[in-house]
């Protein structure tokens, strides 16, 4: 599903590499946490996956396809396979909850009919059916994050990538968000979650990849951090 082969990324000459010879394999249907101190290379890993940036050395495969071989025109199709959830919510303030989620379908040319059918299902999945006509400023942080998740899964991505999805939320709301991600995973979507939230990682007992100063130092199957917090 996702494979990194000896991937190195350096942003600038004479600076330490942001990723150092990282090799890993994430299978279809896995739920993986990616942890590490600030600057360890987590967001770099995600940007490489989305092909927002390219490796300095090494190769990245998604579904056995080397994404370096994608033409500019093909990159949007790669990104459609991936849903993304970032800490800064980025909802459209002048659109309702329904419209925010619908927008992700409109831009890839889905019909009115498909949109009217699917958006309520996605909002139900994240427990937000009762907020469908509200606007972002009328929602709590946790509710806004649910909308972002609904939007990220609306086009059935095979991989859902989350960079600090619980970053601004209190512990209880964070658990609710992680439970939603777990349910999405149960339905077959591969999930990669970048987080600093040690409590959640400890409770979930999922695979944990630890980056230290750009190197993948620990790959633990049962949820242990590879570094001291
Ligand atoms: N566009 C860039 N140009 C130059 N250096 C960069 C760039 N983006 C990231 N870096 C450097 O690469 C290293 C890894 O950064 P990255 O953003 O991947 O870390 P991170 O693990 O996501 O950190 P955080 O937890 O703070 O989000 C850091 O040393 C950072 O300064
Ligand atoms: Mg980051």
TrEMBL record:
One of its GO terms (molecular function) is ATP binding. Part of the ABC transporter FtsEX involved in cellular division. This is Cell division ATP-binding protein FtsE. SUPFAM superfamilies: P-loop containing nucleoside triphosphate hydrolases. It comes from Acetobacterium paludosum. Coiled coil: none annotated. GO terms for biological process: cell division. It is a peripheral membrane protein. The keyword Isomerase does not apply. Pfam families: ABC_tran (PF00005). Residues 2-229 form the ABC transporter domain.
């Amino acid at each position: 599903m996702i494979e990194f082969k000896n991937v190195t990324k350096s942003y600038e000459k004479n600076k330490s590499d942001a990723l150092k010879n990282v090799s890993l394999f994430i299978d279809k249907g896995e739920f993986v946490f990616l942890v590490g101190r600030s600057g360890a290379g987590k967001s770099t890993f995600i940007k490489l996956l989305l092909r927002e940036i390219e490796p300095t050395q090494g190769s990245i495969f998604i579904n056995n396809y080397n994404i370096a071989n994608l033409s500019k025109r093909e990159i949007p199709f790669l990104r459609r396979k991936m849903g993304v959830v970032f800490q800064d919510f980025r909802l459209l303030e002048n659109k309702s909850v329904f419209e925010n989620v619908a927008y992700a379908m409109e831009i890839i040319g889905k019909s009115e009919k498909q949109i009217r059918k699917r958006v309520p299902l996605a909002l139900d999945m994240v427990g937000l059916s009762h907020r469908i006509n509200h606007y972002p400023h009328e929602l709590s942080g946790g509710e806004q994050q649910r909308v972002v998740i609904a939007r990220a899964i609306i086009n059935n991505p095979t991989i859902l990538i989350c960079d600090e999805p619980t970053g601004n939320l209190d512990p209880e709301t964070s658990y609710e968000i992680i439970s939603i991600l777990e349910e999405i995973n149960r339905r077959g979507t591969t999930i990669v979650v970048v987080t600093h939230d040690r409590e959640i990682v400890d409770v979930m007992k999922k695979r944990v990849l630890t980056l230290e100063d750009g190197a993948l130092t620990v790959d633990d199957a049962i949820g242990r951090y590879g570094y001291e917090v």
